Amino acid sequence: MGLTSLIGSLYADLADSTNLRYLVFPNLAAGVTLTGGKAYAYGAWAEIVAAAGITADTWIYGVELTEGLAAGDQYQVQVGSGAAAAETGLAAVPFDSRRASGDNVDLPLPVKVLNATRIAARTANAAAGAANTIIAKVKAIQGLV
Amino acid sequence: MGLMDRVNAIVLAKVTSDNIRYVTQPAGAAGTAMVSDGAAAAWAFAAYVQIVAAATITDPSWLCGIHIDTAAVEHHNADLAIASGAAAAEVDLAIFPYRGLFTGATAVLAAMPVNPPACMLPYPIRLAGAPRLAGRIRKSTAASAAGVTLKVVLATGVGT
């Protein structure tokens, strides 16, 4: 890609962005419950969206997290991509849930996931005695470049 | 680095960024107790507390933000400075204001309506050479050992 094309891409994405679309996954469905592995060990990956659900190159720019446990806990949530049992961790974010609360953690630089790539997530939770849960949705952009 | 390389790096960072990864520090563990030293006056910075030792983080990394958990000792309003550099030679990189809510009393915990969110920087700060990271606080209350528990969010692979 030449210099003109590179600058054109930046201009289109950052200043003239009629093609940008912002999405959430799972789409039109409840968030995915992630179960921690206790004591800051990661639990199992859970699918956020199947590969077939990603129909264009997609940029992950954040997660929305909601408490799955009434008493709250502290979490390290990681979003990844790839087939089941072959996920690559892309973004780990800290989160502290409390009293049925939730919030967004946005990334300053979106992470690109190629078209037709499955997105998954997993979490670790702080409590040593309980594998606590957090509910996750992934926020994404399509139409960059 | 020539103009072409610089523009290419910007495009890679902002758009075609499939090498970017985000990690937390401390990783897979509770946050660092970012507490005052018990001697600093109100709104005077206390001593630095190490977050990660030198040669721990990936070189280069980018400081993207922080996450604060609940406070220790007492409620306080404060500023938190994240710094890099060896002990006694730290350089403050970013100062974040925060409100630390002490959860020692059940009634206080019940009154807390939301969780403390992560605070992300719009412009990540490049950390070259895997430096030691430390932090310090200056708070609204008189000398005490109050503080919060902290995690930092770092990125790697920016511009590649």
Describe this structure in words.
The complex is a heterodimer of chains A (145) and B (160). With 145 residues, chain A is mainly beta. Helices cover 8% and strands 49% of the residues of chain A. Chain A has one helix spanning 3-14; strands spanning 21-25, 32-35, 46-49, 58-67, 73-81, 88-97, 102-113, 119-125, 133-142. In chain A, strands 1, 2, 4, 7 and 9 form a five-stranded antiparallel sheet that branches. In chain A, strands 3-8-5-6 form a four-stranded antiparallel sheet, with no helix packed on it. Chain B is mainly beta and 160 residues long. Helix content of chain B is 11%, strand content 44%. Chain B is built from two helices and nine strands, in the order H-E-E-E-E-E-E-H-E-E-E. The model of chain B has no long low-confidence stretch (mean pLDDT 88). The interface between A and B is large, with 45 and 45 residues.
Give the SSE layout.
The complex is a heterodimer of chains A (145) and B (160).
Chain A: H1 3-14, E1 21-25, E2 32-35, E3 46-49, E4 58-67, E5 73-81, E6 88-97, E7 102-113, E8 119-125, E9 133-142
Antiparallel strand pairs in A: 1-9, 2-9, 3-8, 4-7, 4-9, 5-6, 5-8
Chain B: H1 3-14, E1 21-25, E2 32-35, E3 49-52, E4 61-72, E5 76-84, E6 91-100, H2 106-111, E7 119-127, E8 133-139, E9 147-156
Antiparallel strand pairs in B: 1-9, 2-9, 3-8, 4-7, 4-9, 5-6, 5-8
